[in-house]
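Fold these two proteins, one after the other.
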Amino acid sequence: MELGADIVALLALAAFLAGMIDAVAGGGGLITIPALMAAGVPPVQALATNKLQSAFGTGGAVIAYARKGLVDLRRFAWPTVAAFAGAAGGAFVLTRIDPGFLEGFLPILLVAMAIYFALARRGAEEDRHTRAGPAALFGTAMGIGWYDGFFGPGTGSFFTTALMAVFGLGVLRAVAHAKLLNFASNLAGLAVLVAGGHVLWMLGLAMAAANVAGAQVGAWGAIRWGAGIARPLLIVVSLALTVKLLADPANPLTAAVLAMLRSAG
């Protein structure tokens, strides 16, 4: 698939904005995926290309947290394997689904993720006691990994929330280990989608560079001015792009709703 230079530039800008927001609030895929689809990239290719550019961001974050001694590889070795296996399964299912169904279904998931981010709360800073054991952590990592392989946006937030609410980690350690699990699931999903020939490499690498740059700006801005604006901006941009997708009469979900309205009238 060939895209004009102007479209590539706009998608790189979307990746830059996503990187800024993702650095402080997570959920950057809520911007890049609908942007890719709004540019005419088919659903599976959009998800695959987004997986390529997001792998760079999560990989860099894992290195940064590991250097600060915040990643416990001994405890999270098997959960990381579980996230990898789950994502491979999710990506495999993705490649076997009718693209027409995905075009109608993905906007629903995008709206659901925007609502989740609007309602999600911040957690405690310190670790606390938990009764959940290694088996529960393994299963949770595999389940969220499957979701990441199939779709993706919000995965880091899901991992972080689960690690805080169920497994007792404080915010910083939860985020650090969420990035580790998310990196594993990104790699697995990307491997399956690369094998299927679904990744738009030049576009994905351009967006990856923009995403990394945006993440640096976002982190700097959060330190200087705080991160309060990131989440509302994420929700507004995500919903605006989703509305653009649904405004196309050719979208299967929009076409189905219009058909129902015509038959009812």
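Now the second one:
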Amino acid sequence: MASPLTDVGVETPVLAAPMAGSPTTPELVVAAAGAGGFGFLAGGYKTVEALEAQIARTRSAGVGFGVNLFAPNPSPVDPTAFRAFAHAIAPEARAYGLDTTRFPVTEDDDHWADKVDLLLSSPVPVVSFTFGLPESGIVDALRTAGTLVVQTVTSPVEARAAAEAGVDVLAVQASAAGGHSGTWTPQRTPPAVPLPDLLRSVRKEVSLPLVAAGGIATPHAVTEALSAGAAAVMVGTVLLRADEAGTSAPHRAALADPAARDTVVTRAFTGRPARALRNEFTDRYGDVAPYGYPALHHLTRSMRSAAAAANDAERINLWAGTGYRSATAEPAAQILQRLASRA
């Protein structure tokens, strides 16, 4: 494994991606390190206090790890479109005693400044960013604090800008990835470029180390990405059923359902493009949901939480990449070691 990844303790080229919400736990991150890889805590959607607690739990295990943050890149929602969508999904929410027509338009930056301050006052080995590029001053401050900076990109244009901002490593994410696209232009769904092709096109523009992400779920996919120029790969969906993951019961069940679902890129749940297993909600509202993040995330969050508690897989965001059928229920270390077996 080439430096600078080796410098933070990476021994095998398969890393555990940050999965915001409940799937990524400190235990999953520790397991990734124990398998010779590396894991990232997901800072998105957490309070500063919750993130600090997860950092402390992971740090107490004595392993290397990273933290991922959502860089501010708001996609403001049109208020009229927001209200129309809130009324459209009202029947789904009423099933759980919620009235989406009364929800306010909520725009926020996910406690950005406070989270950056936390990572500067108590540095971790690696910090990664997605959704947008932080100010160069933040990149410089983190690097001065001894932190390796990783930036998620989805195109050669983004890769060039990230390199110019002084980041250390690029996480190159293809459209096959599960969950939110890291695109910096969420009003446009990224084209379906195969990961090896995307890696080669990025490599033509920059010389930084590349970490490949998006649809990787088999040893063959790992070797293919490495052959296309990646120094390592990052996997998420294939870990959703791992013993250490905090994935909800209905999400786990949907991933394991022998009546396999297709995946779709939808903005129905959050107003930002994200790949998920098809369900009734994506079918009904995928074409009518407006762009608008994080406003739609806040609008649907209570409904999704209630549906998850009720084991209702038709009203929750079943984030999943195209390789989800390879997700297995076993210890994370076994999954990661199997993926790295041909590297």
